[in-house]
Amino acid sequence: GDSVTQMEGPVTLSEEAFLTINCTYTATGYPSLFWYVQYPGEGLQLLLKATKADDKGSNKGFEATYRKETTSFHLEKGSVQVSDSAVYFCALSSNYQLIWGAGTKLIIKP
Amino acid sequence: NAGVTQTPKFRVLKTGQSMTLLCAQDMNHEYMYWYRQDPGMGLRLIHYSVGEGTTAKGEVPDGYNVSRLKKQNFLLGLESAAPSQTSVYFCASSYQTENQPQHFGDGTRLSIL
Predict the structure, then answer these.
(1) What is residue B54's three-state secondary structure?
(2) Per-residue pLDDT tens for B29-49?
(3) Model confidence over A23-32: pLDDT tens digits?
(4) Which of B43, B99, B106 shows the shortest C-beta gap to A51?
């Protein structure tokens, strides 16, 4: 069946560092791919999405490119801030549901 | 814009007690979902609904029941709460077309003693 694999956390970085959180997937067909963010004590918010191969989703300085050849959707940001500390989830659409990765906790130190 | 509203936000139950979690959405979404989130386990789908009057089992349905009597509401029931059901519960909704994102409520933190 369809699945999503994320890099394990926590990921700890200093402010202004470059961020990459890896996400790879297994799917039949052509799913849409999503990144969600969960700040402490809150629900999940859609961060960005891509609906077809080579699409780039972007929001709040974060980017991810839908790579069909490597079945990946890695999340990147050029310069992280303390306020980016959160848990990040990668997900793909499958039969009107979302298949979720386990989440990656990101800690940014000032 | 309220979006997805979950009630209550916190609750403590004793083993064997019953309760109902309410989810309401004002976006006219057809699809609604109940998840639980446990440390290190990510999100797991409990039940979902593809429209008013319909429900279906997700990955971890045992011990829970759901109802979707109105399009805007999706209820999650625990008939006899167990400590293993201590978790944070999230409701989500989405449009009925494929590949749509889900919109989440703020969660209900439930503790079973």
Answers:
(1) coil
(2) 999 999 999 987 789 999 999
(3) 999 998 889 9
(4) B99
